[in-house]
Amino acid sequence: MRNLVLLLAIGAGVGVSNVYYIQPILGLVQHGFSVPANLIGWAPTMAQIGYATGMLLFAPLGDMLNRRSVILVKGIFLVLVLIAAFFSPNFTTLLLTNAGIGLLSSVGQDFIPVAAHLAPEDRRGRVVGTVMTGLLTGILLSRTLAGLVAEHYGWRAIYAVAAGLQGLVILLVWRLLPPLPASTNGRYADLMASLLKLWLKHASLRRSVFIQALLAISLGAFWSTLALVLAAPPFHQGPGTAGAYGIAGVAGALAAPLLGRFVDRAGPVPTIRLGCLLVILAFSGMWIFANSMVSLAIGAVVFDLGVMAGIVSHQTIVNTLDPAARSRLNGILITGAMFGVALGAEVGNVAWAYVGWAGICAVGLVASCGALLISSLSTDAFCACRGPDYF
Fold first, then answer.
1. Last residue of a domain, which of 166, 183, 200?
2. Is the peptide bond before 234 cis (omega within 30 degrees of 0)?
3. Labelling 253: which of 175, 262, 312, 316 has CA 20 to 30 A away?
4. Which domain holds residue 110?
5. How many domains does the chain divide into?
6. What are the 10-residue block averages of pLDDT along the chain, 391 residues in total?
7. Can you give the residue ranges of the Major facilitator superfamily (MFS) profile domain (predicted)?
8. pTM of the full predicted structure?
9. Are residues 165 and 221 in the same domain?
10. Last residue of a domain, one of 120, 149, 183
């Protein structure tokens, strides 16, 4: 079981990392294709839109088809799109391939329901936490890897590396992952329609999505503006330093198995509230010690840990609600979180432009306080919809 969990963690990390390779190489892409500054930002935006769309469109497939087959097919097409990105002759083609990369990189999330399905009930939180460590480590280190590869071999090289890594994962899944039969019968259209039914049925799903989206806003606000903050006074640091902060954030991701154990023992709701408090503490400290790079590093670790506490707990909750709909439930949760990241990035950039670092910290504090408030409300105060409540 240990080797299988390791495979799931690697698969999740490699799959989702493809979405983020574009971010640190934007300058090289802009120079190579002579793209205007007001258009270059569409490259990562297309990847994020594709990812959120993939989570919604492909979520039912993991419940209606063999999950192993779904992972293999999506992985193969992802390799082909990565190769197409490598050979992009112009910026328009790169935009389209990044949308495809985002769409198919949802394969990284397919490993989460597999982990929940294979894990014993008393260890589900721990196993999901371990796989989430792989996923978040992939996100955090993807920027560092892309920057290093592009600096020495050009921006196209990272797509060749990504295709090779994804191909290796496909081979390992084909050799090691057992068949995982469909958990439900039904047509694709019916399962897509069931997403709304699941949303209305489960109060815990609704609350989990709102809380995680708010925590994700703080995440997006910080990481989307960090390079700008470090480049400005009093730091005057380059993109390499921003990449190093991604490594600091890995410390929070590596704590996911410990958080999973805490979820198994204390329950997901106390862990969620602890995570909200950690995010509040982190942004408060970074606001007070605004001129300290050490404060930024410590804050990145602490608030990443808080966001991780939320996602591990919420995935434990949604994977318990309906075993036959785990892929769809996870898809709804992650789609909400991705919209939170996108919103946080936009609000964070506006806050930086008009207010500065204090504005970014304020965004993080307001979002995390809102998450804590929702986690503390009674079911009746939260909504009047029907359905069992986990909180």
1. 183
2. yes
3. 175
4. 1-183
5. 2
6. 87 94 80 78 80 82 83 96 97 96 92 83 77 84 84 90 97 90 76 87 93 92 78 77 70 69 83 94 96 91 88 86 82 87 79 90 97 81 48 59
7. 4-382
8. 0.75
9. no
10. 183
